[in-house]
Design brief:
Arc Repressor Mutant, subunit A, about 120 residues
């Protein structure tokens, strides 16, 4: 389970790593300078926080992920449902759809996921 919560800036930074890994710290510094107008020290500070949070690893000046983007957000979603809705996915969906109506396409996609789901024995 991922215990690290990312803010908006950290999410954008993480996306850079996930989209370009493995990458050198020099490449990361250059990308962050172009996209965010950051100094080298800012890039290293954010990288350090995400490494300490167990999301990335810095080894020999190369940055790689310890968890994929999909697995990170999957774990965060599961944690949110557990904490906010006592683990009830139907309760989450009911709350979500009170404010956000699902399109026919979204309903069809959800139905397809449910129909293809094979519970573990």
């Amino acid at each position: 389970m991922v215990g690290y919560n990312m803010g908006t800036v950290e999410s954008c930074f993480a996306d850079i790593v996930w989209e370009n890994e493995p990458l050198s710290t020099a490449q990361l510094v250059e990308i962050c300078k172009e996209r965010f107008n950051w100094k080298r020290t800012t890039t290293y500070t954010v990288l350090k926080r995400l490494c300490e949070g167990g999301v990335f690893k810095l080894e020999n000046s190369t940055v790689t992920s310890l968890i994929s983007r999909e697995n990170f957000y999957s774990a965060k979603s599961q944690s949110f449902v557990e904490e906010s809705f006592n683990g009830s996915l139907p309760a989450f969906i009911a709350a979500f759809t009170k404010r956000q109506k699902l399109s026919k396409k979204e309903i069809d996609e959800i139905r397809k996921m449910i129909d293809s789901y094979k519970p573990e024995e």
